[in-house]
Each structure stands twice: as structure tokens, then as C-alpha cells.
Amino acid sequence: MKKTTYFTQHQKTGSAGKIVFLSLVICSIFILPSCALLNHKNPTQKVIKTDLKTVHTLDMYTDVSGAIHALFSGIDKNQQLSLKYINSLDGGKTWLAPVTLNNGLATVKKSKRGNDFQIAAYGNKVMAVWQSQGGEPWTGKIAIALSTDFGQTWQQIASPVSDEYAKIDQGYFDIAADKSGQFHLVWLDDREEAGDTQGLRYARFSNQKSSWNQHTILEMTACTCCWTSISSDNDGNIHVLYRNDNPRDMMISTSLDGGKSWQKPKTAGAFDWQFIGCPHQGGGLTSTQMNKNTILHSAIWNGKNSSRGIYYSQSSLSKDKVAVLMPIGDNSSASADIAALDNDHLRIIYTSGDFESKSVMSKASNDGGQTWSDEQRLSADGAEPSHPRIIATENGFQFFWTEWQENGDAVAIIAELE
């Protein structure tokens, strides 16, 4: 999923908005003491205080200043569907108390991991995207809210999808902000009513006009229910990772002009996987710089029996062919994400094992993705984790996932390496 890939080339600044924000009461989010730093090897994990009885979806975003933003959906203590927002200005050491985002705004539709509601930020502006109830009981319509005070208050803004398509399900979206503060959104919907595929659509939010523009269909026949990932690199280029229909391989589409036009999509891994159906597996995408060239890094899943599992893919923006494609996990590995701490240090997070004995695993690269470490287990014995995420912060990598509890509820977990 998306990352602000220019984070490592920016120093944390003290803007006026952040000075005001720092005057607010910051509270610890964790049940246990704060984590240690990254430069050790033992994983520690804690339950995140979300004020939700059970967590349905989660998303994390690191902005250009290094602030971390998080969005959770689920059931609150009053048995209502709710959205909760938190943030941290110190690399995850302390967090703002949860803010209920959807008070007085569009309703929240029940969702699940793999169709997570999304968050992105630039400066004092934070944008949240979720599904409200659509025109039919089984459909969800994109709803969007914008905060201009670092997530303290929220206002509903227009959706890029008109009410004409309220009965068409709109989901599996992702959002990112570029270096100029423009927000970019991708999602899947089936307004053509193809049935076995969905259209991959893109729109850009104009801060000057406070409206969505540059509406584009990036792919008419994308896989119906595999999450998308969008990322902006240091040069402001926009990249989208998605699963194609035929073959069911992962593809990357790129815009070099802020979303006005798009290059021909290129494969992230040519497995030629022929499959009718949806595997419910997207991927993660980030980028680094090498000799002034943009390098795209993705963590993808392939379902072809002879080569099933998670793969790391690397390609140059200036070349069509994949430069590096290597297996990361075994044939039970799935649900991967990737992040870059700098141009050399990358990490991939994923699950391994079957439903009865699933674990969160991670591998690291210290040479820009050329070689990878042995896998390291992050989740505890007996845990039931789902859909891990990873972000790069000023304190190193942080890992997030949800875990099922014995009472049937799910909690959000944060982990670090100490």
C-alpha cells in the first residue's frame, strides 16, 4: 500500500500548525510501555488504543514531515460503526487520543481487512476515505472527509463518484499526497457492469478549487477485489499497483505529470497466471532513488501453483522490464506490504501459514533490494493475525496488523524491532 517515499529526503520541520498541535495534550496510545529503537533485532508488540470494541480495517500513513497518521474502522463501545483517527509527531513514541472522525458525516459501511479505509496527509491537511452505504445493501459508496487542523476536526467533501453511480460498489481504494500537497485517489468500481472485472479509476483533488479533477480510467478490466496501492516519488510522479484480469498478474501504471496523463502499464511480475475469480490479494509499493533515477519496489502475490507466494519486484522508471524478481516467502505467504527507510534499507512484511497457524513475518534488505535477510517472525505464538502493514518512520520501521481475540473481537497491533 501507499507510502510517502520522499520521507527520507526531508527533515522534520516545525511549521506553525505543528507548534499549535504540540501544545495539545499528547497521550500514550499503548497499553504497555513505549517501544525500543529499531537498531536491535527482537520484536516487541503492543495493542493500540483505538476506542473500538473490535477493529474492522486499519491504515497508516507517514507524511513528508515524518508525522504518522492512522485510521481505524470498527464497532465502538456503543455498538455503532465508527471511524477513529490518531496521529503521532514523534515517530510513534506518543500518540494523540483517538478522535471520532465520522460524527455528523456520512455513514460508515462495515468493511473488512483487504478493503481497508484509507488515510493520507500533507502539512495540516489530512484526508480520510471510507465506504458509506450505497444504493443497494451490498454496495458501498466512496465517502471523503478533510481536516485542515491535523485531524482535530473534520468536514465532509464531495466524492469523485457522482450519485448517478450510488448503486455501484466503490472500494479497494488507496490515497496518497504528492510533494506539492495534491491528493491522488484510486479505486475499483463496475459502472460498466462487466460482472467479472472492475474498472480501475483515478482522480486528483485540487487544493485550489477544492474539487476532484483529472478523472481517468487506468484499466477497464482490473481484478474485482484485490486492493490497489498508490505512491508518489521524490519527483512528484504517481505510481499505481493493481492486479490485472488476464493474466491475473500485478501491474504498475505511472504518471509523470501529476495524473494528467498515464504511461502504458508494465508488469510487476510476468507469471502469466490464468485464473477465473478473485484471490483477494493486492500488494505494496514504494520507491527510492539511484543515480537520480527512480527505482520502484513492490511486494506482490502470485497464485500460480508452480510459483505461489510473495515476491519482491524491482524496476526502474526508465525501463519497461523488471530488473529483480525474487521469492520472499513460501507458498503459504500472502498479504504483503513494503517500505523504504532510505535508498538502501527496505523491509517487507507478510503473513505465512494457514488459517489455523498464521504468523506475521518480515525480511530486510540493506542493499536496495538486491539481497534479503532470513525471515523473522513478528507475531506471538498462538496469535491470529491478519493483513500486516509497514511504514518507515524517523525511528525506523513500524509494523501494524489486526489480531482476532478469543471473544471474536479484533484488536490493532503495533510492533517494532528493539
Unreliable parts: 5-40
> Order of strands in the sheet with the most strands?
1-28-27-26
Element order: H for helix, E for strand: HEEEEEEEEEEEEEEEEEEEEEEEEEEEE
Subunit arrangement of the protein: single chain
Major sheet characteristics: 4 strands, antiparallel
Tell me, briefly, the overall form: globular
Category by helix and strand content: mainly beta
Rg, Cα atoms, Å: 20 Å
Mean pLDDT, as a whole number? 89
First-residue to last-residue Cα separation = 25 Å
> In what range is the share of β-strand residues?
over 45%
Count of helical segments? 1
Any chance you could write out the topology, listing elements then pairs?
Elements: H1 16-22, E1 43-47, E2 52-62, E3 68-76, E4 81-88, E5 99-100, E6 118-122, E7 125-133, E8 140-147, E9 155-157, E10 170-177, E11 183-189, E12 198-206, E13 211-222, E14 229-232, E15 238-243, E16 250-255, E17 266-267, E18 283-290, E19 293-302, E20 309-316, E21 324-327, E22 334-340, E23 346-352, E24 359-365, E25 376-377, E26 385-393, E27 396-404, E28 410-417
Antiparallel strand pairs: 1-28, 2-3, 3-4, 4-5, 6-7, 7-8, 8-9, 10-11, 11-12, 12-13, 14-15, 15-16, 16-17, 18-19, 19-20, 20-21, 22-23, 23-24, 24-25, 26-27, 27-28
